[in-house]
Amino acid sequence: MELPEAISLVSRAFSEGSVPGGYLVVGDVNGNAREFVMKILCELFTSEAEIQQIRDMCHPDVAFLCPEGASRTIKTDTVREKLVEPMTKTSYSGGWKVGVVFGADRMQISAANVFLKSLEEPSPKTVYFLLTDNPTQLLPTIVSRCQRIDLKVSEGVLEDGPEREAIDEVFSSSEMSGVFARAQAAKYLASVLDDLKKNAPKGESAIVKKAFYKTIMRQVREWMARGLVPLKFAFRNIEAVEEAYARSERFISDESVLSFMMDKLVFPKR
Question: Given CA atoms 191, 196, 199, 204 in this order, what sign does their dihedral have?
Fold first, then answer.
């Protein structure tokens, strides 16, 4: 489903009073799925101050929940404190209460069961948006109680070519132990990304940037799969790439974002 179609579908449900207890939004969690839910929230909370609160993820009537820690999971206590309890409180604006879960498939089993009770017995004028790119990992009982929105999946990793080779070169290097080497690698990767965006078809720079980070993510996941990095560091690597991509959406320079990422990464011993 294209993004405008999905937004129109859900907007109509709100205007007609036919909103389900939850929406399962399948797409790019930090891409079109995030954009979708932010646009819906800005339709529900329309003042300039509220829209800014939505962008800053601090609106009093919206509970935002993300995976956390080295394991990138959502824990039971976090679900209770940051999602379930806030949703039971009276709406500050007198309207809707909304719960948004980024990476809903990362909920631990016990956390998912706690959330399920809230989904089964929702308070009036409450709705949940569960964002995921891996819906098969969610409890079937949660999936069955949500209306599913399947968004168009963006491009995957970079195809074979000089940019892909440049990334492979950096991540197969044995010279990443020093601060200077990592800073130089970040500068090099930033130039690769800049070339990709300059050469992208009109309107597709965001797609190639996502493919760039997905290619890096594939590298660190391969390290984990092959046991080249201890598991606790492997999860931290995944977190570092995810956070770098999120930072890249905040108008921070590519070199600064990639320097942050390279400082966080744990490379295999070669």
Answer: negative
Does residue 173 sit in helix, strand or coil? coil
d(CA 237, CA 221): 8
Angstrom distance (rounded) from CA 52 to CA 128:
20
For 83-133, how does the pLDDT look when each residue is reduced to its tens digit (9 = 90+)?
A: 999 998 888 888 999 999 999 998 999 999 999 999 998 888 999 999 998
Determine the Cα–Cα distance for residues 102 and 56; give it in Å rounded to an integer. 15
Share of the chain above pLDDT 70, in %: 97
Using alpha carbons, select from 98, 103, 79, 139 the residue that is nearest to residue 27: 103
For 24, 40, 176, 216, 245, the CA distances from 36, given in Å and listed in that order, are 12, 6, 38, 25, 18
> Quick one: tokens of 216?
């890096």
What is the extent of the structural domain holding 242?
162-264
Residues 31 and 138 in one domain: yes
pLDDT of residue 156 exceeding 60 = yes
How far apart (Å, rounded) are the C-alpha atoms in residues 227 and 87? 41
Q: Does residue 88 form part of some domain?
A: yes
* Residue 86 domain flag: yes
Is 36 a residue whose pLDDT tops 70?
yes
Tell which of 102, 129, 150 closes a domain: 150
Instruction: Give the pLDDT confidence score for residue 133 in this predicted structure.
Output: 80
Model confidence at 160, pLDDT cuts 50, 70, 90, reads confident
- CATH number reported for the structural domain that contains residue 77 in this entry: 3.40.50.300
Nearest to 124 by CA among 147, 84, 96: 96
